[in-house]
Amino acid sequence: MSDADFKQNPAFVLVHGAWHGGACWARLVAALNAAGFAALAPDLPGAGGNAASPLAFSRRPLDTAAFATEPSPNAAVSQDQRNDAILAAVDEAAALGNGKVILVGHSLGGITVSPVVEAAPEKVAAAVYLCAFMLPPGMPAVAMILSEIMAEALVPPLFMADPEQVGALRIDVGSQDATYVQGIRDAFYGDLSDQQFEQTRSQLHCDEPVSVAAVPSNITPQRFGTVPRHYIQCLHDRAIPIAGQDHMIASVDDAIGGKTTIHSLSSSHSPFQSKVGDLTAVLESIASSS
């Protein structure tokens, strides 16, 4: 597709989740481009190419005590920095397409989508939460993560340090322990092939700044509530179980008003890898209605 083709359609900004970077969207970006849509997938501050790892992470066999206590080099990253980065990406994307921008957040990326929409509702044609944290006013992500409704989530057992001590949600993405590696796969990538899983795991970073998960949602009916919102449920998700997805949708609808449009995919937590065609079709349908 040429730049002229992109000018006919809305553009997408794709916001990755925890421990990921923009590279996780590569197959989806290619599919959207082929369908005539420009798409940007930046690395958030403290993530992807912007992430750093504690020294203990690179020393194998892993010294678990050192890994559990070394302060995170990503700890100073703030949610405001992430919001600013995506606001800049929204402006960039608007110039690539027909001026309309569809903002898509995966997993913890949802906590960046919400404040960006709240800050600039006039710049976002639709907000899309892909099995993501769509939180009602006043709730931080950590409260949702620790809630009873998320009891079946497989992510917290992967944590290898006290977040308050090291300043990060820390997992060992480079683990050589087969049981632990299977835990990562079960949580995020239940329907990926062995090759896809290993390629994806090699792109992950180990430290997600914990401060971003402590920032309460700031959405309001007057701003966030004016933008059409969509939630793409992943029916076999074991990182954010379907009960958690349902709860967040109902909570936001109750607090903000209006109705979140719900779509569903028969996938695990990462359909941008396992169900690219199906996910592209859903995003195309959202674009056509925006």
Q: Could you characterize the architecture of this molecule?
A:
This protein has helices at 3-6, 26-34, 64-69, 79-96, 110-119, 141-145, 163-166, 178-188, 194-201, 242-256, 271-274, 276-288, and strands at residues 11-15, 39-40, 101-106, 126-130, 168-170, 207-209, 229-234, 261-265. It has 290 residues and is an alpha/beta fold. It has a six-stranded parallel beta sheet with strand order 2-1-3-4-7-8, sandwiched between helices. The protein has a two-stranded antiparallel sheet with strand order 5-6. The longest helix has 18 residues, at 79-96. The radius of gyration is 18 Å and the shape is globular.
Short description:
This protein has twelve helices and eight strands.
Assign the CATH architecture: 3-Layer(aba) Sandwich
Poorly predicted regions = none
CATH homology-level superfamily: Alpha/Beta hydrolase fold, catalytic domain
User: How many discrete structural domains?
Assistant: 1
Task: List the total number of helices.
Answer: 12
For the record, give the distance between the C-alpha atoms at the N and C termini, rounded to a whole number: 21 Å
Order of helices and strands: HEHEHHEHEHHEHHEEHEHH
CATH fold-level label:
Rossmann fold
Helix content: 25-40%
What's the pLDDT, averaged over the residues?
A: 96
Tell me, briefly, the overall form: globular
Q: Which class of secondary structure composition applies to the elements? A: alpha/beta
**Rg (CA only):** 18 Å
- Class in CATH? Alpha Beta
What is the count of β-strands? 8
**Main sheet strand line-up:** 2-1-3-4-7-8
Strand content: 5-15%
Oligomer: single chain
Largest sheet: 6 strands, parallel
